[in-house]
Every structure is written in C-alpha cells, then in structure tokens.
Design brief:
- The chain is of the alpha/beta class.
- It is 44% helix and 13% strand.
- The chain is built from 8 helices and 7 strands, in the order αβααβαβαβαβαββα.
- A hairpin with a 2-residue loop joins strand 6 and strand 7.
- Helix 4 packs parallel to helix 5 and helix 5 packs parallel to helix 6 (149-170).
- The chain is globular.
Length: 220
Amino acid sequence: MIELEEFEEGNPVNKEREKFNRRNEAILYHEDPVGAVFIGDSITAYWDIDSYFRHTEGKRLINRGVSDDYSMYCRRRFEADALQLNPELIILSVGVNNTKEASDSEKAADIIQQVVSDIRAMVEESKNRGINIVITSVTSINRPHTDFQGIRQDAIIEINRRLIELATVENIHFLNYYDVMTIDDKLNPELTIDGLHPHVKGYDKMAEVLTKQIKSIKLQ
C-alpha cells in the first residue's frame, strides 16, 4: 500500500490525507473491486457520487476529490488515491483552481502549460498501468466580484482546447461539461450558487454528459 505523508505545511490537500490513507487501506485490505475513481478538486469532492450512479456489477465508486486541489498536487497524489486502487476507470477533473493565479496573460500562459502538462502525465501513468482514464473540461466561473475573471475565463477556454487535443492524441474520452454549463463564457447562474461550484442541477448536467459518453464500465 502507498500511504502518503502530508505535503508541505499549508498545502490544501493535507486536510484529506489521513482520511484517504485509511480509506485506501480498507479497500486494498478487503480487495474491494473498484469500478471508478473520481479524482480532482472541490467540484469532484462536493459531488455526491452515490446519489447519481450505481455500478451494475456492484463495484465500488470512489470519490477522491479535494477542495482547493491544483493539478500539480493531484499529480503528486494520483498513484496513491487512484492508480493503486486498480479501478476500471479513472475520471480526472482538475485545473480551475490553478487559474486563480492568472493575473496577467504571461502568468495565464504558464498556468495553462502547467495544467495540461500535469493532466498529460496522469493520463500516461494510467495508460502505462492499463487503467482506462477519461479527462473532463475545466468548468467556467461566474464571479464578477473577483479579480481577473476575464483572464481566468480565457485561460479556461485555452486549457479545454488543449485538453481536447490531448484526448484526441491519446485516444481517450473528453467529457465536455463546459459547453452544457456555460453561457457567454460564464458558468450558467442557474447551475451554481457561488459562481464556481455546481449545485444539484449543475451536477445533473455533468451526470448526463458522463453517462452518455462512457460505456466502458457498467454505470447506471
């Protein structure tokens, strides 16, 4: 079993580390068959997976989302929280928090490169282990009270464009939540409370996209 230590002091993913270690331990010890691991940031963490999906063969559906996760932190915990559980499928969704640092076009370019590079690395690790993986779009934001909203929205559009290219090259699914949840480059206000996180109607849209596209595991 890979049991991660906490990252550097103040890292936002530390708050879930001990809980995930113990849960991973139980799954591995009991040799629970895992149908899918959902991994990413708070948009994944807040999704009540069990309310939306069942695996028709009774396999586990595991949520390893962490509030305020960034692509580089997700990459560092990817082996422990996804690969070692040996799921049929990994659903990877991360990147929106990286864009919080996009205060100008130069910083945005670096952030775009970081997110795509980290996701590419996780895709390659999954394929090297023979584990199917799908990647999702980064959903937009609708927070006009915050700084640099326009720069962040443009960065998200470019990240998604590059992720579509990545999915094509790697021959994997790209789940496009962005198009069904966005109006005029902003997250549809009818699908969110705070302009970032979906509420139940937003998650309904995401579930529709996932179930229409993913046939490699037996979800209902």
